[in-house]
Specification:
- The chain has one domain: Double Stranded RNA Binding Domain, CATH 3.30.160.
- The protein is built from two helices and four strands.
- It has helices at about 30-45, 70-80; strands at about 5-10, 15-20, 25-30, 60-65.
- The protein has a four-stranded mixed beta sheet.
- A hairpin with a 2-residue loop joins strand 1 and strand 2 (about 15-20).
């Protein structure tokens, strides 16, 4: 299965996510776990994937918040390690 690259930034208290390889695939959320679900949903919609494909997506996150400590923490959080 294809790995989707997701670039995440911060604006105020919101996490913003873009999938550069899928035109129009972007979303935002207040929390990282919520953002992950939204990212999966937007990839499935924009990529016209079959129903239920969201749970099977392989996502590679890259964080650019302007704070290296927050970036590292965020990466560990979404990676589950």
């Amino acid at each position: 299965m294809e790995t989707y690259h997701v670039v995440v930034t911060r604006e105020d208290h919101n996490w913003l996510a873009t999938v550069p390889d899928l035109r129009g695939a972007h979303t935002d959320a207040c929390g990282l776990s919520t953002l992950d679900g939204y990212v999966r949903e937007v990839i499935a919609l924009v990529g016209d994937l079959p129903e239920g494909a969201e749970d099977q997506l392989d996502l590679e996150y890259e964080f650019h918040t302007g704070d290296h400590v927050l970036d590292a923490w965020s990466q560990r959080t979404v990676s589950g390690s």
